[in-house]
Amino acid sequence: MTTATTMNSKLYHIFLLVAVLSFCACSGKTVFSEYQPLPREGWHADSALCFDFAAPDTISPYDVIISIRHTQQYPYQNMWLFISGNRTAVTGHLSSRDTIEFFLADDRGRWLGNGYGNLREMPVLYMHNHIFRSTDTLSLCIEQAMRENTLRGISDVGVKIVKSE
Length: 165
Prior knowledge:
Blueprint: H1 3-25, E1 30-37, E2 43-44, E3 49-54, E4 62-71, E5 78-85, H2 88-91, E6 96-103, E7 114-116, E8 119-130, E9 137-144, E10 150-151, E11 154-163
Antiparallel strand pairs: 1-11, 2-10, 3-9, 4-8, 4-11, 5-6, 5-9, 7-8
């Protein structure tokens, strides 16, 4: 085999792998996905990230997932978040506020979630098998609830709505 043929064969296999992974990733179950970047200097305690989305339907169950992208410079093992907003279609109330805690690292300091290098991503299941009460537009706002005015090491926060399995 010539060098050009070997190179073309490798490129073909790389293209095929990317195509298969892309096909598998697009399963059609995700109905909403959005990430918002945070400033390099950190996530300020008074800075809420709001995500607006239309509830997909009132019949099927859905999972609401919050994803945190962080660097290895994040100084803690866990994280606390305040989650609030206009959730009439979700709970029937005019608004609500939840506090959730989740872990980004295990007891030995090893990062959980996905990623490589300096950037990690941790998905957190916020609601499971949830059936929306109406198809109104919802607003879900997320604030960091740590004891620091400016929390360093968080690069992005995302919300994903996926049809439950």
